[in-house]
Amino acid sequence: MAMSHVQPMLLLLASLFFLPVLHGAIDFEYCAKNGNDYGNVTRIEVSPSIGFSENPYITINLFCSASKNIFPGTLVYVTYRSGDFIGFLRTYNLCDVTACNTESVIGSWHQL
After folding, report:
1. Is residue 62 part of a domain?
2. Is 77 within the bounds of a domain?
3. Which segments within the chain are labelled E, that is strand?
4. CA–CA separation, 42 vs 6, rounded Å?
5. Is this prediction's pTM over 0.70?
6. Less Cβ crowding at N or C end of the chain, within 10 Å?
7. Range of the domain at 34
8. How far apart are alpha carbons 46 and 2 in whole angstroms?
9. How far apart are CA 11 and CA 8, in angstroms?
10. Is residue 72 part of a domain?
11. Whole-angstrom Cα distance, residue 108 to residue 88?
12. Which residues does the UniProt record annotate as the domain MD-2-related lipid-recognition (predicted)?
């Protein structure tokens, strides 16, 4: 029985299309499992890439949109998960990691 070369070629092309997206994918979920009522996270970037690195520091860029006003002094909790273990990394005051106007609320979106 002769096999068509079209199907394996389509599978190869489809996998090449999705591999760049999956390469930088971060397994992200909300702590409450259903999002937050103040906004949504749209993207997370971690630098350097996840894995072994000589540099003990990482940079986390969080891209989100706010559906409610976020007031100065709001705290951001950074945790990580490895299997069933959840570890706490650090707490940040939002005004310490992004531009913050202390006399008004923070607008519709921010990058940490």
Report:
1. yes
2. yes
3. 39-47, 59-66, 75-82, 85-93, 109-111
4. 36
5. no
6. N
7. 27-111
8. 47
9. 5
10. yes
11. 27
12. 26-101
Q: In angstroms, rounded to a whole number, what is the distance separating the alpha carbons of residues 108 and 29?
A: 21
In this predicted structure, what is the pLDDT of residue 110?
47
Place of tokens 């992004």: 98
- Tokens of residue 93, six digits: 């005051």
CB 109 within 8 A of CB 65: yes
pLDDT value at residue 50: 57
Any alpha helices (H) in 1-112, and if so which ranges?
A: 6-23, 94-97
- Whether residue 7 lies inside any domain: the answer is no
> Which of 60, 72, 61 lies closest to 107 in space, CA to CA?
72
